[in-house]
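User: Hello, can you help with two protein structures?

Assistant: Certainly.
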Amino acid sequence: MASRIAPWSVVAEHRRLDLHIFTLRELTLKDPRDGREHPRVTLECPDWVNVVALTDDRRVVLVRQFRAGILAPTLEIPGGMVDPGEAPATAAARELEEETGFRPAKLVPLGVCHPNPALQDNRLHTYLATGCVQVHGGRPDHGEDLELVVVPEAELGALVARGEISHALVLSAFYFAGLGRPVG
């Protein structure tokens, strides 16, 4: 679908704070309609991946992990940052194994979305991993507090409907995979 909105130009950019997982930028943008300048603050972030992982018996591999933003654990699918120079598919397989100890027989790209385009410049690459087999207990990164949760695929809709899975990027991944939609 064509857009009538013309791109805004960057008049000035200042990288203010590099915090490894993101860099805070202050931008001055020019509105092409009237030439007026507008300040904006954005986050420059690496791309992310997440993985809808299924075993041969149609069980979904999830992780429950503590999230500092809400100071509580969330139930979600494995995922994380794409390292510099790393292909998203490689990052997806790596994150799946690090967080859960599962390896896929097959990894298929499902889709790409922008996690928060109002603020961030990155993309989220979602993959479907099938034929997943657990090869070890997982090797989470330092500072990650993870619990492995494996549920039948048929239970996803109820987990979403009850709000037990509420992470927006996980819900996006389920949409790409055609999973977890509440009935009704």
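That covers the first. Now for the second protein you mentioned:
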Amino acid sequence: MFRSINRLILPQTRSRWCRFYQGRPMTVTPGIDDHVSNVVLIKSADPKFLSIELQMEDTESLRIPLVWLRDHCRSEKFYDYKTNQRKSNVTSLFDQARLSMHKVPFEFDKKHQLLTVRWEDGHESTFNSKELLDWAVFTRKDYDECASRTLWNASTLREIPSVSSQNFDFAVFARLFVRFGVAAVLGVESRNEKATKKLCESIAPYHGTFFGDFWVFGTNEKPNEAAYDKHEDSAYGNAEIGPHNDGTYMDQTPGIQVLHCLRQANEGGENIFVDGFAAAEQLKKERPDLFDVLATTPVEHHYLEGLDSPNFGSDDYFDEDPSTVNEKRKEKLHARSVGKPVLHCFKHKVNQITFNPYDRAPLRTLRVVELDASAAERNVELTVLWYEAYEKLSQIIHNENNALKVKLQPGTVVFFDNTRILHARSGFEGHRKMCGCYLSRDGFLAKARPLLTSDYYKHI
């Protein structure tokens, strides 16, 4: 018969658990009444659903399945502290997650907040209650109030947060970037792109695409000047471009985008930035039903280059003789991403926005159905709702009250989170020269997290 022990004073021979258990250091403050007051076994007709319930001082409780506890055992037998990796291959986890029938199956030391679980195979796992709560529970309050992210609009952020290139402090830059999603480095050499490349390479690895690792682009001052490398993308022209995210047509969306204006146009050419997370939160507040539509409906985006045949998209296109189709094209590109919604959410909180009205592929939300009026109406309803939601979000994004406008000058290098920040450009006249790249967001965060406090990086 299983039993729980409400309070157990550990014998002297096991007092080492107070400072070191399961082969790893820990911090315990003896005598402090922590969260958990009691531990009981919750039985089930199906043994795989057996769980241990942690009962709190304030009448709340947390049930943890035995299989979860076994999976999170941090003994040196099942966890490598040199590599911070589990050793289990998860082929017999349920067999291992059986409580001992020959010893007291579990004990809880309230004073030191230690839960000891004894398994049928003879292994013993010890857990600190604080770690159990940290590992098992996603605290929405912490996420909502996390200092790592400050949503903004035109009235709350009037200029791009910046640091100097002189005595550049990566930790300060990282805090600004993580908090606002955009940060600038001032005083960078602008006679050519070399200093910009060096700065970018010091911050994170490149996120390479078919555009190349690093780009120099713009419009020529004189007709006979050597042309910049160009792709069939509006970024290489001088027309106005509305707020959007880059690379929505890629499964691995570029995480960080960098822009440096090496030469500004005589007229126009302002850069515009919008906090996509703030826009999404506004939509959720005003129309939660439309927010849910954009968070659950997959949308396809594509990038087409050298594929302007009138038959593109049909089966006939790929049967055409390549020697007679687009003969002057040196390369054809077709990038495509399917299955991503416009708003990517975790626990109802947006963690990525994929908004690009220009690169949307045909919207395939309709279905051919049998002669069923209700099914046909539902098809139409879902499609119309998506357009209503997309239009509403677009109106919020294009609202000038949500836009930070700057006319970048040579020497100012802007870094922005392409999973959060939408960028735009006003039309311009004359010669304008830019350089930039995509950087790995994962590479940046891996470097930044050790330098940031836990409230900054806990949810990034």
